[in-house]
What does this fold into?
Amino acid sequence: MHHDRDFAAYMVARWPALVRTLVLLGCGQPHAEEVVQRSLSRCYLDWRRVRESDDIDVQVYRSVLDTLARDSRDRADMTDTADDGPEPDRTDAELVRDALLEALDGLDDQRRRVVVLRYAAGLDERQVGDLLELQVEVVEVTLADALERLDMPAVWGASR
It folds into this structure.
């Protein structure tokens, strides 16, 4: 019973960050939610081992990224491309999000993952390194380089 409560508390606390991480990595919202749901289901089945690991977040994000990688081999395009007609008025937050996604599209996969895992997922450099199997120094250099490449003033200026 404690096992279920513990997992449920973790899931509720981390769900938004997990989904947001995948969206920023290029997934459409529905696909991101599906990937997170399947990943958390796998983690639940093995929760005792995940819980006893050195870093629960690294284990869960590894499951999420592995599920995403499996999906990307099966899908030609991870983003939603359906044309739903004219675009409705968008909020400032949506404009900034879209500008951020466009800026992130300009990064290679490794830089994008490092930035998203560090800032959107809230993992520290050691956790990002563990997850991506990189030395902390490589994470730090990659992060600094990626941040130089991102045009953040343009992202923040995307709002009205």
In short: The chain has two domains: 2-74, 92-156. Residues 92-156 form a domain with the Arc Repressor Mutant, subunit A fold (CATH 1.10.10.10).
